[in-house]
Design a protein that fits this description.
17% strand; Thrombin, subunit H; alpha+beta; elongated; 2 domains; Methane Monooxygenase Hydroxylase, Chain G, domain 1; 6 helices
Length: 167
């Protein structure tokens, strides 16, 4: 998928930014090629158009897609695998790093309920906090609302999930 100037995109490391230009550039001795210039809050990066999928660059979810993610957040949580408690945070971090919006919804839903049942460890709490921040930021852009409003909506959906599931 090719992006256009002005598109809001998600990068797995730098999070959300927007395409400010698409231009041909030559770095060092490499052949010139097309690059997306992407502005993030603290930096601007250039990504070759031809490797956007490899890098994991994707569009911010659309407003119309949020309904399916509301349903996902309200769906029954999947219990965390307790067979390998030391591996679990690393597995979650790896999943979240890919930047998939549905995975972020699932991780926030599952960790939130897990924390309600038994307090999470420091690493899992950090993963939950950071993932929830990313989820709320992207939700706000997609829904065209403030981050505070997005946070409130997601919290309401999670409370409904918690009330519906047994302790």
């Amino acid at each position: 998928m090719e992006f256009k100037v002005g598109d809001f995109v998600v990068h797995p490391v730098y999070r959300m930014g927007h395409i400010t230009a698409i231009e041909k550039k030559q770095f060092a001795e490499l052949e010139p090629c097309l690059y997306y210039q992407i502005a993030f809050p603290r930096r601007t990066i250039w990504i070759p158009v031809e490797v956007q999928d490899t890098v994991g660059l994707r569009l911010v979810v659309t407003k119309s897609d949020l309904d399916q993610y509301r349903d996902l957040l309200k769906s029954p949580p999947v219990p965390l695998n307790s067979n390998h408690p030391r591996r679990r945070p690393m597995d979650l971090a790896r999943l979240v790093q890919r930047g998939s919006f549905p995975v972020m919804c699932e991780v926030v839903r599952d960790l939130t309920l897990s924390d309600r049942r038994k307090p999470l460890g420091i690493t899992a709490k950090t993963i939950l906090r950071k993932t929830q921040q990313r989820l709320c930021q992207e939700w706000a852009i997609a829904a065209e609302i403030s981050v505070a409003e997005a946070t409130q909506e997601i919290d309401t959906l999670l409370r409904a999930t918690q009330e519906a599931s047994p302790k």
